[in-house]
Amino acid sequence: MSTLTTLLTLAAMAFLPAADATAVMGFNSASTKADGTPKVQSDFEGEFRLAAGLKGAPGPFTSVRLYTNIQGGTTNSPLSAFPAAVATNTSILLGLWASGTDSIQNELTALGAGIEQYGDAFANLVIGVAVGSEDLYRNSATGIANKAGIGAQPSVVANFISETRSFLQNTSLANVPVGHVDTFNVWGNASNSAVLNAVDFLGIDVYPFYENNLGNNSIGNALTLWDSAMQQVQAAAGGKPVWITETGWPASGAAWGDAEPSVANAKLYWDEIGCPLFGVTNTWWYVLEDENTSDTANFSVSLDGTTTPVWDLTCPVATTTSANGTGSSSSSGSSSSSSAKPSASRTKSGAAVVAPQALATLLLVAFAATFAF
Predict the structure, then answer these.
(1) 134 is a catalytic site residue
(2) pTM given for the model
(3) Residue 359: what pLDDT?
(4) 246 part of the active site
């Protein structure tokens, strides 16, 4: 190996993100089907097995992010995804719905019943509890303008997080991290600091596809938008873990600004944004099977329940990342996102970035070692 090759190889290695052996790969899953009827256990089991068996995937997708603990059609019965996860050994990011309500008691009751009914087999699969989903975005001026629905004030979400912690203390989930999921742009807003201070982790939803308010939101600029968002959210996080809870690019549907849905674009987004995340930070892709009939863009990885994906899921042999080693969603100090869906950003929590002085030392050592031969 030449001196120059050695130096370049070591320099490149210095900026590669450090993989987290415990990082999960999964998909988001709603509690209802596209027609609005509640999913039952067999529906969830089929979904989880499909995710784990996708052809060409960089690994089995064996995790699920849920939005609620309550089974559809009931007041506070546990979601049928719980026994389905146990049957398929699928890890879970639990979700408590927190918007448009002054109480999460039914959510907690359903969770408590699930813990009691399914025991450690269920509890051991839970990797986190997310209290709320995009509540702060929906409560912002942008969310209101986009008619995103009823949100919740930061103080309300923070109180719900505190209430959840207290509830979990007497259960087998007492040591599970508790966080909140929202769009990347809300986390740096000082008005949301009560939520940021309350969480163990930040869940971020990032969609460059919808960021037409930031200028060029074409697929060619997606990585730039992602990295910008990631830098913002990492700055706001203060060292707390950042998990990617939603991101994706539609393979079909209507354009949004400069963003064009297509199989080729969905594949490029998967390669540039997804592949550097998989196995590095907890990531739940949007989505295995798109059940959002109100959106003209279709984000489905699989159609008609087949393990043959819409686009090739094989990752490039070598994946390049931005110089800051990030790949997660971020939030700026203002709620400026115009996303109809949550804005997304790519984060690599746990990325190994070498300081310039350390890198210089590494290169000098490599240089000396090379010439020693």
Answers:
(1) yes
(2) 0.82
(3) 33
(4) yes
